[in-house]
TrEMBL record:
Protein name: DUF4177 domain-containing protein
One Pfam family recorded for the sequence: DUF4177
Length: 70
C-alpha cells in the first residue's frame, strides 16, 4: 500500500518566464531525504491564455499493510 503527498508549487504561467527560481529541485530532494518518491505533477491553476500557474507535485511512499498509519 502507498500513501501520497501533494505539495502545491507556483511556477509562473507565462510563456517566457524563467521557472528556475521556483525551487522544485530542492523540494524534490528534501522529500526524497524524508522517504518520499517523486511520481509526477498535476497542473492546478491556469492563466487566461492556457499557461500553467501552479502545480501539485506528487510524492508517494510505501506504508506497511500491518501498520496503523493513516
Amino acid at each position: 500500500m502507498y500513501e501520497y503527498q501533494y505539495i502545491e508549487l507556483h511556477v509562473g504561467g507565462g510563456f517566457w518566464i524563467d521557472n528556475s527560481q521556483c525551487a522544485h529541485r530542492d523540494l524534490i530532494e528534501e522529500q526524497a531525504k524524508a522517504g518520499w518518491r517523486y511520481v509526477g505533477y498535476i497542473p492546478s491553476c491556469f492563466t487566461g491564455n492556457g499557461g500553467i500557474k501552479d502545480i501539485d507535485l506528487i510524492f508517494e511512499r510505501r506504508v506497511d499493510a500491518g501498520s496503523n498509519e493513516e
